[in-house]
Amino acid sequence: MAPPASPPTVTTPATATATATDTKAAARGPRRARLRLTRIDPWTVMKTAFLLSIAFAVVTVVSVAMVWQVLGAAGVWDSINSTIQEAIGGEDVADFQVEDYVGTSRVLGFTMLVAAIDVILITAGATLTAFLYNMAAALLGGVEVTLAEDA
Q1: Cβ(35)–Cβ(142) under 8 Å?
Q2: What residue intervals traverse the membrane (predicted)?
Q3: 81: domain range?
Q4: Phi/psi at 148 (nearest 5 deg)?
């Protein structure tokens, strides 16, 4: 028995045109578009800056807590206590503890305060920068960007 015959290949004009267009596009290179950024929405900038500054604040507090715990585990506070007791001497210093002055709760509280102030300042600064950019773009025309398609 003979194998079934395959149908003949037919080239349609649409197939030939698509192939010719593809070769022209490949020879021409990637498409490019020149765009101008003339306005940035301040509300969007404020929301984005707020979320990023919240993330930065969380990272700051967690990193300070981790560093503080590592310093405690390494015996830094005991070393400071013994150094101060040896340097000053006397009975008054015998019960000196550096943690009474610079304890974990005090340091983390101060870090949270600084992080909250940073959230406010970063959000306000980014929003103000968006307003200033919009004013400068109105005068100067904005930033020109060339976008290219990957080959």
Answers
A1: no
A2: 49-71, 107-133
A3: 34-142
A4: -125, 145
> What percentage of the chain has pLDDT greater than the value 70?
78
Instruction: Write the DSSP symbol of residue 100.
Output: G
Within a domain: residue 147?
A: no
Q: How far apart are CA 150 and CA 147, in angstroms?
A: 10
Which pair of tokens denotes residue 113? 């305060």
In a domain, 27, yes or no: no
* pLDDT tens, residue by residue, 87-100: 887 666 667 788 88
The pTM of the full predicted model, rounded to 2 decimals, is 0.69
Strands 32-37, 143-148: pairing kind: antiparallel
- The H-or-E segment that residue 123 falls in is helix 104-140
Q: How many domains does the chain have?
A: 1
